[in-house]
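Open question from group meeting: does this chain pack into something compact, or does most of it stay loose? Before anyone orders reagents, we agreed to write out a predicted structure and look at it together. Recording both the input and the output here so the notebook holds the full record.
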Amino acid sequence: MHYYAHDRVEISELVGKTMKSVKQLQGEDGDELTFITVEGEVYVFVHDQDCCESVKIEDITGDLEDLVGSPLLQADESASQDTDRPDRWSESWTWTFYKFATNKGYVTVRWLGESNGYYSESVDLYRLKKEDDNEDS
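Structure tokens returned:
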């Protein structure tokens, strides 16, 4: 199945969904965290990189496998710019925390967004659409 286009959605949309897989992908253009539900829905956490910024997964606390096979009971986002400065080149930084839970365990994904202060440091969640999906949802 091929996927295209996407709709930006709120993280709360994941609550109650059961994941078939949760994968972290790291690349030159940034990181992605992909959730695939047992119904075949695909959700991707990603940042569309620009020239003078970097948004990457700094660390994951917990086991992503704990999010597979049981409904998500919690899916929350929080961000902070008031924490210690990373030891990097950035003039501006944002820590974004995603907290997930099932009855199997908890997982926190910490993203670090850095820039010169003029670019976005946020992470977005997209629901991808299947090629054969004709719905306008």
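Observations to bring back to the group:
Confidence is low (pLDDT under 50) at residues 133-137.
DSSP finds no helices and nine strands in the chain.
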